[in-house]
Design a protein that fits this description.
By secondary structure, the chain is of the alpha/beta class. The chain has one domain: 3-Layer(aba) Sandwich (Arginase, Chain A). It has 10 helices and 4 strands. β1, α7 and β2 form a beta-alpha-beta unit. α5 packs across α6. The structure holds zinc ion. The site of zinc ion (ZN) has 5 residues, from loops.
């Protein structure tokens, strides 16, 4: 997707990750099939979906997302949700599925936010796991606010978020379980916060577990951002 000169989103990270895994060997890569609008509307407000895809979202809504609108952004967004749907189907068949470009957890049902247009994990839950007990462990450094809000009234979905207390999103939502952390916390503090969370996830007895790996919690991510 074209972002224009000097945009702060490190979009090349996706290609770098793919290249790294390809060098490592042992992976079979499959292009994501685009999610259909019907699949997306299982979670998202139909008017929001249609206006985003048509490029007619109001300017303020586009600013909230943080990307300039383009046809490339639409394709990339549908592919990201499609990749998560495919990974979910894979997990239902084999026990494990992965996608390299999902985790758009700041997207709410009727608006995007923080570089997230549609909430891929929420779409997969609503489309493929209706009625199942699902846990979402979100270890991205930013709170999974969209996911928390979408499933706030759904006792069958247990949302967990470990995140920085003081960074985006500045207005936090309430997950089933939130563990806010101070800036600059080290590995020991992080693992001390995570350890008591996992037994609670197991106690919930989920049929299916999403792990939003984030990776932006890593100190190395901060130092590498400027080179992306
Ligand atoms: Zn993040």
């Amino acid at each position: 997707m074209p972002l224009g000169e000097g945009h702060r989103f490190p979009v090349t990270k996706y290609r770098l990750l793919r290249d790294k895994l390809a060098q490592h060997g042992g992976f079979v890569f499959e292009p994501a099939v685009l999610a259909s609008l019907d699949e997306i509307k299982a979670v998202h407000d139909p008017a929001y979906v249609d206006t985003f895809c048509a490029g007619t979202l109001p300017e303020a809504a586009i600013r909230g997302i943080g990307f300039p609108w383009s046809q490339g952004l639409v394709t990339r967004t549908l592919a990201s949700a499609g990749g998560t749907l495919a990974a979910t189907r894979e997990a239902l068949t084999t026990g494990l599925g992965c996608t390299l470009a999902g985790g758009t957890h700041h997207a709410f049902a009727a608006e995007g936010s923080g570089f997230c247009v549609f909430n891929d994990i929420a779409i997969a839950i609503r489309r493929l796991l209706r009625g199942a007990r699902v846990a979402v462990i979100d270890l991205d450094v930013h709170q999974g606010d969209g996911t928390a809000h979408i499933f706030a009234g759904s006792p069958e979905v247990f949302t967990v978020s470990l995140h920085g207390r003081n960074n985006f999103p500045f207005r936090k939502q309430q997950s089933s379980l939130d563990a806010p952390l101070e800036d600059g916390c080290d590995d020991t503090e992080y693992l001390t916060a995570l350890e008591p969370v996992l037994p609670q996830v197991i106690q919930f007895k989920p049929d299916f577990l999403f792990y939003q790996a984030g990776v932006d919690g890593l100190l190395a991510d901060l130092s590498q951002l400027s080179t992306f």
